[in-house]
Amino acid sequence: MGKKLYVGNLPYSTTDSSLQQLFSQAGNVDSAKVISDRETGRSKGFGFVEMSNDSDADEAVRRFNGADMDGRKINVNEARPQAPRESRSFDRAPRNHDNY
Question: How far is CA 37 from CA 20, 28, 31, 51, 58, in A?
């Protein structure tokens, strides 16, 4: 199994397809995803690329970390595991069903 890479400081015009196309120059890309805002749909300026194997991922980091992409120096490194999210439950005080 390959590595998941974090790609930061992306130009806001970057698409999943253009990100995949760029990283395919370093090896086989399993997936490429630019993260966008839920409400506006606008890119947040970062994304993730999953490379097929570790050597392709290492080559992508070597080749693209600090590289210029449409006038911006992108940051590429191995992605850290996602931290667990806090519960977003909207629990209220326990209801007293005796009052019904």
Answer: 20, 28, 19, 24, 29
Q: What is the dotted CATH code of the domain comprising 4-78?
A: 3.30.70.330
pTM comes to 0.81
Q: Which long-range contacts (CB under 8 A, 24 or more apart) does 84-88 make?
A: none
Q: CA-CA distance, 44 to 78, in Å (whole number)?
A: 19
In terms of pLDDT, which residue wins out, 41 or 88?
A: 41
User: Taking the mean position of all CA atoms in its chain, how far away is CA 90?
Assistant: 28
Q: How many CB atoms lie within 10 A of CB 50?
A: 18
